Amino acid sequence: MHRCALHRVRDKRYDLPLLHVRALRKSFGTTEVLRGIDLKVLPQELVFIIGPSGSGKSTLLRCCNRLEEPTSGAIMFDGVDLMARATDINAMRRRIGMVFQSFNLYPHMTALGNVTLALRKVVRKSRADAKTLGMAALDRVGLAGKAKVLSRRIVRRPAAARRDRARAGARAGRNCCSTSRPPRSIRSWSARCLPSCASSRPPA
Ligand SMILES: Nc1ncnc2c1ncn2[C@@H]1O[C@H](COP(=O)(O)OP(=O)(O)OP(=O)(O)O)[C@@H](O)[C@H]1O
Ligand SMILES: [Mg+2]
Which runs of consecutive H residues, i.e. helices, occur in 16-101? Predict the structure, then answer.
């Protein structure tokens, strides 16, 4: 973790940190991953944590809402001591958003079911309100049309996707980029992320 760089890209607006981490240490067995991390994040501030794979970025973030139990150190969020026994950590977690590195979807649930689950069970929204919010979120990322599709049919592991593309390419006797027809949502991602690839075929 000591190799990670913390880059602040926004000016301070307030003096009191929203998140204040002090002397945070985390070991997995004999491997010490976090060796005394100090970090302050102010309200409205945007902080990027950059470092090589395995340097402890995810571990640090997971410690910040105690999805990972720190070995020692202090974590204050909005003035509340997250390490204190008396703190309702689940209540605090409702205020700390987290996007997981891997998809972490429930494969047996639909896309809409996945995005509305926490709204219904944690925030206690009504089914109708959760659906409205969930559909808006799916629409924002171009997945409204997949709302009722099981997530395991939408998200495929990269290796499986590569195998499918290779098979499709072999069948058609052409290169995989021009022959594969991933679902529309994945094509729109490709168009944004891989313009050189997308330009080789017209949008759907
Ligand atoms: N639950 C665990 N048990 C044992 N070791 C773990 C556990 N979680 C993480 N580690 C180890 O801690 C180290 C830091 O892992 P971490 O996932 O935080 O790295 P990272 O910086 O997020 O890497 P990446 O850029 O690949 O996501 C790695 O050596 C990893 O193997
Ligand atoms: Mg990580």
Answer: 57-63, 89-93
Cα 160 from chain centroid (whole Å) = 21
65-115, pLDDT tens digit by residue?
999 999 999 999 999 999 999 999 999 998 998 888 887 889 999 999 999
Kindly list the distances between the CA atom of residue 86 and the CA atoms of 17, 91, 119, 186, in Å, as whole numbers in the listed order: 21, 12, 25, 45
Say what the pLDDT of residue 8 is: 53
* Percentage of the chain exceeding pLDDT 70: 69
- Is 58 a pocket residue for ligand 1 (Cβ < 6 Å)? yes
145 Cα–ligand 2 center, Å:
30
Instruction: Report, in angstroms and rounded to the nearest whole number, the Rg of the chain calculated over CA atoms.
Output: 21
Nearest ligand by distance to the CA of 49: 1
Q: Model pTM?
A: 0.69
Q: What is the dihedral of CA 41, 47, 50, 54, to 10 degrees?
A: 50
Those residues with Cβ within 8 angstroms of residue 42's Cβ, 6 or more apart along the chain or in another chain: 12, 13, 14, 15, 16, 17, 18
